[in-house]
Amino acid sequence: MAWLPEPVRRLLDAALVAELSVVRRDGRLVTYPLIPLSDGERIYMTSSVLFSRKLEHIRADGRVSASLTDPVAMGGQTGRATIQGDARVLDDDVHDGWTSVLPLWRAKEPVIDWFITQRVALPLFFERAVIEIVPRRVLYWPDGRTDVAPQVLAAPETA
Amino acid sequence: MNARTALERLAGYPYHLATWREASGYPVTVAVEARFEPQSGTATFVRPAGLDVPLSGELSLTGSHIRPRPGYGYDERRHLTVWGLPSPSPGGGITLRATAAWGWDEADMPFFEYAERSVPRSRRYFRALSRRLGRMVRPRLSFFWLALRATRLPFLSATLIPVLLGILVAAAEGAFDLPAALLTLVGAASVHLGVNVANDVFDTLSGADDRNVNPTKYSGGSRVIQYGLVSLRGMTLLAVVFYALGLTVGLVLLATRGSPALLAIGVLGTLVSVFYTAPPVRLAYRGLGEIAVGLGFGPLMVLGAYVVQTRGELSAGAAVASLPIAILVALILYVNEVPDRHADAAAGKWTLPTRWTPEAVVRGYTLAAGAAFLAVAAGVLAGLLPVTALLVFMTLPLAFRVRAGLRSAYDRPYELMTAMGLNIQLHLAAGGLLLLAYLATVVLAALLPEVRPFLR
Q1: What share of chain A in percent tops pLDDT 70?
Q2: DSSP symbol at B299
Q3: In whole angstroms, what is the distance from residue B438 CA to residue B425 CA?
Q4: Window 125-154 of A, Cβ < 8 Å to B
Q5: 3-state DSSP assignment of residue B359
């Protein structure tokens, strides 16, 4: 199942921000910057209930794309990738459920541990849903130039 | 944000992303080289190679920015999306005519305000989630943290200092009753916590707390009702429990002391605390909140504790000792009201900062803080306070720092938090030194009775 190409996984591992595009009920596309977390197979993002509009959109239409674009946010890597996939919202336990991805989050944003100790100050920020994305198709630009056609890779079951 | 402004801002982002929907129904987001013409409300970008960008329907351009902070995470967060209708441009690119925009820049709106403005959305989310899961889902905190937050427990120092001061002033005059002292602390703390909780209830009912989008850890109430952590009914019940406990302790003390002075102090204290925010009097809404707080956490608590110890005696020394504490505690409220002033005014809560100009508020702080120190000096010179009370002057630099912070960060609530924190430290430090001064007097009286700690 771990079919994502190695260079794209490296981008995912490094990226502090990915732009998640979702489809609104009226068809408008909305793009949100979020921290992408990945176990090599799936992509995880978390969203506070405070900023839960994206969760409503995903629940209505799970087709999303996550763009890895900013070289500054990817530790200087110049490659770029857009990952299209099917997302679902995991919010059965918004209080604690998201802590399953905390080790991945901590690796990118160490200060999160300090923020968690301040949970009393920001209680709603730490009521969070997990967005789980199963990648279906990847567009990859090895040197980041989008005036050159991307390499296109599809998940095995949809290839 | 209008399209022109949005395009001007978007042009400043380090890279740009075009987003459209493919025939498969999936969005696709691709970095593009874009050129902006805000005057004409358009942006033109190079068509990404190898991809079919539809020219029917809407597409968007997004900018996103962070500054990575290794070992920490990142800051300088901002993003902006402009939607529009595409058309082919002469050079083979695509021109987008902007129609709408949306974004957030933490330089314009601090994260905490952004989060606060989003609280109603979280409430809607919890309602929908509860319906979907078929059970009530609410945000949670552990009991300890919830109790701390709902009662605003750390502010209890405002009670501990005057009550301990009253007990120590009496002890310095030879009167000390430990069980009565402990009961006094419990009773006063209960009333204080009751005031805190009742204040949240009434500020919710008036709409003041709901309107406040700039609460800080020192101002804007506990927010537990707004955040859905405790219901309005739950907080009302909690206030009643604290008041009932305080009243019971007061009645026990009254019964064992039989002092008319204690009765008067108790009745006045109860009225001030209840009508601080309760209608129809609502002292806090009439510009009398600062005086009410100064009276309640100054003379009433110091003299109340003193009278319990002396079984009904009053003294000028205790009254004078209460003055600096009264002024400094009133100043805590006064400074904490500054970031709340817009929400308070909208809710008809006419605190002093809602009535006065920033210059007048800073001047008022200077005069009142000066008066607190003057009261100590005058009390020592009059022989009503021990000479050791002059230790309080060690906190004078804190007062200057609060004034400077108040002046420089008046309109920036989150920066003002530093001054608010220092102001609380000022009350704690001055009160603590005053307690130390009286403790030294008690110890001196026991060990070196020939030493006279008072000037007269």
Answers
A1: 98
A2: I
A3: 20
A4: 125, 127, 136-137, 139, 141, 144, 146-150
A5: helix
pLDDT, greater one: B451 or B364:
B364
Delineate the domains of chain A, giving CATH numbers in brackets: 6-154 (2.30.110.10)
Burial (CB count within 10 angstroms: exposed 0-12, middle 13-18, buried 19+), residue A27: exposed
pLDDT value at residue A1: 54
Residues in chain A, total: 159
Per-residue pLDDT band at B336 (split at 50, 70, 90)? very high
Do B229 and B90 belong together in one domain?
no
- C-alpha A9 chain-centroid distance: 12
What does DSSP assign to residue B374?
A: H
Structure tokens at A14: 């490094």
Closest by Cβ to B64, choosing from A19, A27, A51: A19
Residues of chain A found within 8 Å of residue B128, distances taken between Cβ atoms: 56
Domain check: are B83 and B161 in the same one? Answer: no
Are B367 and B257 part of one and the same domain?
yes
What letter would DSSP give residue B355?
H
Contact list in A for residue B15 (CB cut-off 8 A) is 69-70
Euclidean distance between CA atoms A38 and A31, whole angstroms: 19
B133 with A92: Cβ contact below 8 A: yes
Assess whether B238 and B257 both reside in one domain: yes
Length of chain B: 456
Domain that holds residue B128: 109-138
B117: nearest CA in chain A? A50
Q: Which of A19, A22, A93, A158 to mutate to test the interface with B (most CBs of B within 10 A)?
A: A19
- Asked if B27 and B122 sit in the same domain, the reply is no
- Is B225 a residue whose pLDDT tops 90? yes
Residue B454, in any domain of the structure? no
Q: Which residues of B touch A53 (CB under 8 A)?
A: 121
Per-residue tokens: B45? 């970008």
Biggest CA–CA distance in chain A, Å, is 49
The predicted pLDDT at position A158 comes to 55
Q: Across residues A106-122, what is the average pLDDT?
A: 88
Among A16, A2, A18, smallest CA distance to A108 is for A16
Say yes or no for a CB contact (<8 Å) between A63 and B60.
Answer: no
B83 and B175 in a single domain? The answer is no
pLDDT score recorded for residue B278: 85
- Provide the pLDDT for residue B220: 87
* Both structure tokens of B258: 């039989």
Asked if A93 and B133 count as a contact pair (C-beta separation under 8 A), the reply is no
Instruction: Compute the mean pLDDT over every residue in chain A, rounded to the nearest whole number.
Output: 93
B215 falls in which pLDDT band (50, 70, 90)?
Answer: confident
Same domain, B176 and B103: no
| Residue B35 in domain | yes
- Domain contains B293: yes
- Would you place residue A159 in the very low, low, confident or very high pLDDT band (cuts 50, 70, 90)? very low
Question: Both B216 and B276 in a single domain?
Answer: yes
User: A16–B118: do the CB atoms touch at under 8 Å?
Assistant: no
Interface test with B, best of A47, A63, A70, A116 (most B CBs within 10 A): A70
Q: Which residues contact A89 (CB under 8 A, 6 or more apart)?
A: A55, A58, A59, A129, A130, A131, A132
Q: What is the ipTM of this complex?
A: 0.94
Report the 10 Å Cβ neighbour count for B55.
13
